[in-house]
Design a protein that fits this description.
The structure holds three protein chains of three kinds.
Chain A (H helix, E strand, L loop, with lengths): L1 H33 L2 E7 L6 H20 L8 E7 L7 H10 L5 E6 L1 H4 L2 H8 L3 E4 L13 E4 L6 H15 L6 E7 L2 H17 L2 E8 L7 H10 L3 E6 L1 H14 L5 E6 L5 H7 L7 E4 L12 H15 L9 H18 L4 H10 L1 E4 L2 E4 L12 E4 L19 E3 L12 H4 L2
Parallel strand pairs in A: 1-2, 1-3, 3-4, 4-5, 6-7, 6-8, 8-9, 9-10
Antiparallel strand pairs in A: 10-13, 11-12, 13-14
Helix pairs in contact in A: 2-11, 2-12, 6-7, 8-9, 12-13
Chain B lengths: L3 H31 L7 H19 L3 H7 L1 H20 L4 H24 L14 E4 L2 E4 H23 L1 H11 L1 H6 L4 H26 L7 H15 L4 H21 L5 H15 L8
Antiparallel strand pairs in B: 1-2
Chain C lengths: L1 H23 L3 H24 L9 H19 L3 H23 L4 H20 L10 E2 L11 H25 L1 H11 L1 H6 L4 H20 L2 H5 L1 E2 L1 H4 L2 H14 L5 H18 L6 H16 L3 H10 L2
Antiparallel strand pairs in C: 1-2
Helix pairs in contact in C: 1-6, 2-6, 2-9, 2-12, 2-13, 3-4, 3-5, 3-9, 4-9, 6-7, 7-9, 12-13, 12-14, 12-15
Classes of the chains: A alpha/beta, B mainly alpha, C mainly alpha.
């Protein structure tokens, strides 16, 4: 009798231990599943680039929500750790070091813009991190770091990416334009764009009659546009930042500067607030863009993205249409997320190798990376503002006002040439 | 690339710009030129005036210059408050130089950063009936966007000149700048007079700010472009001379315009500072200085 | 003399401590943050030599700092000069700038000097933006040299900055207690009276401007290696101007201790803010604190401490 008691107790104890072990290991697994994957980055939430930084952040947060709704990455929820880099490159080393060493993030992404990505490169190389850059211009040219990938449709030759479409369109017109005026701001992007423009002018054999720059703090653009008008160029290529794009355009209207082809690399004309305040003054401008709501640009998932983005953007007071940068910020996270899932790890090198070898399908189309982490094929669009009336935002929400003229695979409309014809 | 038409246009644009620069510099001419208070925060009040015009323009469609005029009493009051703090903390104790300067710099900073926090760094512009149009006089185009502020600037200059020369308070301000104790002996309170003058200076800034946003879009850090211009004009024109301010403004406007048209605009901003430094080195009393 | 010996010992001890901290290889983030705070100790001390001791307010700190940084960039680009050469060169060039500006304007009233320094930043920035060799407006990426001691180059820079901070403070203390400091104090209180007493005011002012410029340039010289990407807007940032003012004002301008206190307090606060509330709110607060101190506690923390002690 005592023997069976002892045996029962022994088996109960064994059973209890087994059950405890099973429960404990189940608990361990659940704990791991709840352990988030942290993705860290600095972002320009204040300062000069915040107008683009804040919408980019919103897009990345939407991605995080989308991914977490589907169960996260590798079964773990995704958490974004970000700090404001204040559009000041000197904050970047400190921010990323803190995220890596104190917050212990698993993966990093860059901030927005060339100047904020540049200080990240040495840190990435030192710690062998895989970095996805958001809208930087030629950040990797000097370093040639193999684990850097750029999300920006500029393609393998960032300097000429803007000017290529513009001057190709110019060369196609009949009668062929002869003279070109180049003008741009004394700042990073415009200078690079002008370098590319000069190369293309030489390639197509145009004659340059004006080639000058101005300080970005210029108040009055009238002297500049007058000087240009006096030379009567056929083509006017402008590489400017938002304030000068606006100022230049307004001044051009005032003096009735009407080259046959006008535009090129004017940053800012893509922003919702600028489009709605300039209205019909934009008509005829042939400018670069990265995404417009034309039927040829409706990639899988992009409309769902905007359905989420636009109401949230309106509430947060950022660019309400979001047709410029936000889809690309989302796509950057898509690439990272897909690479993590496919390589089944958060190992930096495995992710990098996967990204290098794969063609991704994202909400901005198919992306394949080439030399130095740039896109194998550039996809800077050339669009023209046509038939804009008044300052209502709704006319820009759908297709029609900014048809794509270049490249051919996304072409959705025809150019109105010369420029003056579009002003009527 | 030279042509007479281009030259004529550059000159005219420069003259118009000069009228506007006069509006911008009147306040500092009064406050620094006459009262000898180095109010470095003046450009921040300028921008504050621009943003006031922007807010009224976007919310109610008010013409910016109208807003500028309407807000004058408000900014006058603000100026009074600022001066009272300045006087109480520094002037009375006789410690103006270091601490006063730092005080105003801190004020400049606070105003600029507050605007940045509230309105972000997007460029703000206004809409008005006359922006975007221009008239053509024999090959020389005159943009209304420049003409109207220039005219307002000239009007402000004239008004201030007459005020200082012909009215009681105006003359009292001139007196206090020359000899404070003597004024006290004549029964007027110098502090009271200086308060009024400071208030007028700030009020002038707000109206000039409304003109500024009419001419070009504005962001919070635009004030830094004007620090140099304001002081360059005041020093070049001569401390305490309203007429000198006008002349110096026009000179600066024309130089900037000519530089921009013929030599490329890269250096035109630095020109004003170059002029300031040269003026300080060669003739600190300015053209019409006392 | 004994005091001086003691001071040198303390200085050496601090540097040694810095080296120990560096070799401990604690959390790398500390070295990044520490570098910035120490950099501000140098900047604040340098500013105070002219501002606190002589009473001449320099609003153009960014110009001197950036000039030191860009001199370093130029030397790195042209001949890959070693760090000590960069620091010395940066300091000398900025010292020359200080001498030049001083010569132009110090014969006039103090307020004109200040206005000139305001203009200085913008003129210099325009010049740099047009100088393609150092990157112009596009900026320039700088590669850190490889194989430093302490494993990471930034840790090495941290120790360098400890050394520079000690040097700056020692120089300031030396000036403060010497006849130069007494002369500066005299001209700060009443320049005309000092002249009448035979104080060589112009020479002293030029001396102060030159030394101040030198130290500011020295602070800026290692900056390219720290940030690895130098562009005019951030090199000439207004932050430097405000902090250079606020730190001594908050700490106390009459002694070398003040800028150190101000730099450590304000610098640490800002570093924390960058990774917590992180926005321009942080700059706004600096401005408000600055104005509050100038109005309510013009002698800074040192003054408050003195008052508390009942002096």
């Amino acid at each position: 009798m005592k023997q069976s008691w002892k045996r029962s107790i022994t088996w109960t104890l064994v059973g209890a231990v087994v059950v405890t072990l099973v429960l404990a290991s189940a608990g361990a697994f659940t704990a791991r599943a709840a352990d988030p994957i942290k993705i860290g980055f600095g972002m320009a939430l204040t300062g000069g680039l915040s107008a683009n930084g804040k919408p980019a952040l919103l897009a990345m947060q939407i991605w995080k929500d989308d991914v977490n709704k589907k169960g996260g990455l590798l079964g773990r929820p995704v958490e974004l750790v970000y700090y404001d880099d204040q559009t000041n490159p000197s904050t970047v080393p400190g921010i990323y070091t803190k995220m890596l060493d104190v917050d212990k993030v698993d993966l990093v992404v860059s901030g927005y813009g060339t100047n904020l990505i540049a200080p990240l490169m040495p840190i990435a190389m030192e710690r062998k991190l895989t970095v996805i850059g958001i809208f930087g211009l030629a950040n990797n040219e000097k370093y040639r770091y193999p684990n850097y990938f750029q999300i920006s449709p500029t393609g393998p030759d960032p300097a000429t990416s803007t000017a290529t479409g513009f001057f190709e369109l110019a060369a196609k017109q009949n009668p062929r334009p002869q003279t070109v005026a180049l003008v741009g701001a004394d700042a990073e992007y415009p200078q690079t764009a002008l370098v590319g423009a000069r190369e293309l002018v030489k390639r197509y054999g145009f004659k340059t009659v004006y080639d000058k720059t101005y300080p970005p703090s210029t108040v009055d653009y009238t002297p500049i546009v007058r000087a240009i008008k006096a030379l009567n160029p056929d083509v006017l290529f402008v590489a400017s930042y938002p304030p000068d794009s606006v100022g230049m355009l307004r001044a051009a209207h005032e003096v009735s500067l009407q080259p046959k082809l006008f535009g090129g690399g004017m940053v800012g004309l893509q922003f919702t607030t600028v489009m709605t305040s300039m209205g019909p003054m934009l008509n005829g401008i042939v400018n670069y863009d990265y995404w417009v709501p034309e039927p040829t640009m409706m990639f899988p998932g992009i409309q769902d993205f905007f359905k989420q983005y636009q109401p949230r953007a309106a509430k947060e007071g950022v660019d309400t249409l979001g047709y410029y940068l936000p889809p690309y910020a989302y796509a950057a996270m898509q690439v990272l997320g897909q690479a993590v899932e496919a390589s089944k790890s958060i190992d930096q090198q495995k992710i990098a190798d996967y990204i290098r070898a794969t063609e991704f399908t994202t909400i901005v189309g198919k992306i394949k990376f080439g030399k130095n982490g740039e896109w194998a094929k550039g996809r800077t669009l050339m669009v023209q503002y046509q038939k804009v009336q008044g300052t209502d935002i709704e006319q820009f929400r759908g297709p029609g006002k900014k048809p794509v003229l270049y490249p051919d695979e996304f072409k959705s409309g025809s150019i109105i040439y010369p420029y003056s014809a579009a002003l009527k | 690339m030279f042509s007479w038409e281009l030259l004529a246009n550059a000159l005219v644009a420069g003259l118009l710009l000069g009228g506007f620069y006069a509006a911008v510099s009147l306040g500092i001419s009064l406050i620094f030129g006459l009262l000898d208070i180095a109010n470095i925060a003046q450009p921040a009040f300028l921008i504050l005036g621009s943003y006031a015009a922007y807010v009224m323009n976007t919310a109610f469609g008010l013409d910016p210059i109208l807003t500028g005029v309407l807000f004058t009493p408000l900014f006058y009051g603000l100026g009074v408050v600022v001066y009272r703090v300045y006087y109480g903390s520094f002037e009375r104790r006789g410690e103006e130089s270091l601490r006063g300067l730092v005080f105003f710099f801190g004020l400049l900073f606070i105003i600029e950063v507050s605007l940045s926090l509230k309105y972000g760094v997007d460029y703000r512009l206004v809409q008005a009936a006359y922006i975007g149009k221009s008239i053509d006089l024999g090959g020389v185009g005159i943009a209304y966007r420049l003409l109207v502020p220039c005219l307002v600037g000239l009007a402000m200059t004239l008004a201030l000149y007459l005020f200082l020369g012909r009215t009681f308070y105006g003359r009292a301000i001139m007196a206090v700048s020359q000899d404070g104790p003597a004024l006290r002996l004549m029964g007027a309170n110098p502090v009271h007079i200086k308060t009024i003058a400071f208030g007028i200076g700030i009020a002038a800034a707000s109206l000039a700010g409304a003109l500024l946003i009419t001419i070009a879009p504005v962001i919070p850090s635009t004030d830094r472009d004007y620090i140099g211009r304001m002081f360059a004009i005041t020093v070049l024109g001569g401390m305490g001379s309203i007429g000198g301010t006008l002349v110096a403004s026009i000179i600066l406007g024309v130089i900037e315009s000519l530089m921009g048209t013929f030599f490329g605009p890269s250096w035109s901003l630095a020109m004003s500072f170059g002029i300031l430094l040269i003026a300080l080195a060669v003739r600190p009393a300015g053209l019409f200085g006392r | 003399m004994r005091r001086t010996g003691a001071v040198l010992l303390v200085g050496l001890a601090v540097v040694a401590a810095g080296i120990v901290v560096a070799s401990l290889r604690v959390n790398p983030y500390l070295y990044f943050a520490g570098y910035v705070i120490l950099q501000y100790v140098v900047i604040a001390t340098a500013w105070n030599i002219l501002g606190g001791y002589a009473g001449y307010v320099n609003f153009g700190t960014p110009a001197f700092f950036a000039l030191g940084a860009y001199t370093a960039v130029f030397l790195i680009q042209s001949m890959r000069a070693p760090l000590p050469v960069l620091i010395l060169a940066g300091g000398l060039v900025s010292a020359l700038l200080g001498l030049g500006i001083g010569y132009l304007t110090l014969r006039l009233r103090g307020v004109f000097f200040s206005i000139a320094t305001l203009a200085l930043s913008i003129v210099l920035q325009t010049m740099i933006m047009n100088w393609e060799y150092v990157g112009g407006s596009r900026g320039l990426s700088v590669l850190r040299p490889s194989g430093p001691p302490f494993g990471s180059y930034v840790t090495f820079l941290f120790t360098v900055m400890v050394l520079l901070a000690v040097i700056a403070v020692t120089v300031a203390r030396f000036i403060e207690r010497s006849w130069i400091g007494r002369g500066l104090a005299a001209l700060r209180d009443n320049e005309e009276a000092a002249e009448c007493m035979g104080v060589p005011t112009l020479r002293l002012k030029l001396f102060a401007t030159t030394v101040s410029g030198f130290l500011l340039g020295v602070a800026g010289a290692p900056f390219p290696y720290y940030v690895t990407f130098v562009e005019p807007n951030s090199a000439f940032a207004l932050d430097y101007a405000v902090n250079a003012l606020a730190m001594p004002m908050i700490g106390g301008t009459t002694s070398w201790v003040g800028p150190v206190i101000g730099a450590v307090l304000l610098g640490t606060a800002q570093q924390l803010a960058t990774v917590t509330i992180s926005s321009e709110m942080n700059l706004f607060i600096v401005g408000v604190v600055l104005v509050a101190f100038v109005v309510l506690a013009p002698e800074g923390i040192l003054g408050l401490v003195r008052r508390l002690r009942g002096r």
